[in-house]
Amino acid sequence: MKDWQKETVYQIYPRSFQDSNGDGIGDINGIISRLDYLQKLGIGLIWLTPMYRSPGNDNGYDIADYYQIDPVFGTMDDFEELLAEAHKRDIKIIMDMVLNHTSDKNHWFQEALKSKDNPYHDFYIWRDPVDGHEPNNWVSKFSGSAWKYVPSLNQYYLHLYDVTMPDLNWRNEKLRDKIFQMLKYWANKGIDGFRLDVINNISKDKNLPNDTFKTPLDDGRNFYTNGPHVHEYIHEMYEKIFGPNHFVTVGELSSTPISEAVKYTNPKRQELSMAFTFHHVKVDYTGGNKWTLGHYKLTDLTKILSDWQVKMNRQGGWNALFWNNHDQPRAISRFTDDGKYRDQSAKLLAMVEFGLQGTPYIYQGDEIAMKNAYFTDINQYQDHESINAYNELINRGVDKRLAIEILQQKSRENSRLPMQWNDSKYYGFTTGQPWLKPEHHDDYSVEKVLKMKNNVFNFYRALIFLRKNKVLLTDGAYRQLNPEDNCVYSYERYDDKGKILVMANFTNENQTRKLENGFDLLLGNYEGIKVSDGTVTLRPYESIMLKNK
Ligand code: NOJ
User: Fold this and answer.
1) How far apart are CA 205 and CA 122, in angstroms?
2) Quick one: pLDDT band at residue 287, thresholds 50, 70, 90?
């Protein structure tokens, strides 16, 4: 068993974590000042979202210079200090690496724009107009066409994301060499791994065919998701960088079937350590469409989780486990109750996640039950994806109030609110004006939560401790119990010697279920447990983890 299979990863979104210089944007020195807090939580790895030099159109996922730290976050010296301080505390650092695209401000793209003969031109994906139009009908994930016309070249470039983020041409060996060289530079700094942004999109079908639009998912992605050479490219990175440096790597793999996720993560294939996949957080995309008011059925959610558990395990793959990240609204607001049952909900989600097989991730703020931003005006948003989606909804004739309600439920801006450290106006995040301002004052903060009896933070600590010490949680097989149950999610992890049982009531009512004799309570989100005559009564949002004697 590898260490990262029983450790927990904590994701930091640096912009929103801790500001140290009063400019309203979180920074590296801020992170350093909070390392003791993270050590107390017990995590083993930190994933840092991008801090390279960037114009910030996509908060750092648009890299202008892979070799520099953006001044808003600090300097390279600060970064090296962070690395050393984290290592002193036995915490590993995983850097986010964006290899599908760059910023249009990147030197490579600036050169590429100069002429078709420029050696960097072929670092990107260009096509001539077809009948005066875009080369195909692919849609950008940030709305609109995935192509942008450049009059001086009479060509279009491909951008699967923001228009300022041109896609790289991985078919070009010279580009690949440049990338490997750059990855080595970071490896030589002594980092411990990479989170690879949208890595399953780097290899496009060379003919770039039109997609069918039979469903909202037939928007081009059939021709670039898990494309023809992606496994070769990743294996090459493994051989050259990940393997020799003993890296922990996690691939962001949206729209990826289990069979492919197995290929990326089965150690025999020497590609990635684990797969970050999204099917479970798309469970409330009505008709496959994200920008709708979604409702989910627990049985749909648990079926997805169970499929991934069983099939990844059977075929030697490895899951990354998560509910939240910087691209997701907060799960507590979406799948449970962030009001009356806020504490129980936060703990229930944590327990369900930590009981599964894979490496658990905590997104900053999960450990204090942070909830959605619930912005009421489009002007409060800065995220391009959300703003574009809003405009598209309005253009389609959707009522403004409904469009705002959809964003309140689905926008990723919800999880980008500054971290709440104390109860002051901006929660001790900054002494200046935060780059993203909360609309409501929320009375949950680290300071306050830590004073509460049986608090969420300590519940996470207990789960992290269990993960490190119970082999069943890492290695045990998974079996769902009562898959038709639409209120209580029950599953067990087992081997030939023992069993751990997790039961989680996703409703605000009592639920009584059968319970075999012979179990001890390992952890629960209420005090005590209500068992009688072979049944257990789970209170609203109650979750329990039991171990057989
Ligand atoms: C996934 C990242 O997590 C997201 O924040 C970003 O917008 C896209 N990739 C594009 O890099």
Assistant:
1) 16
2) confident
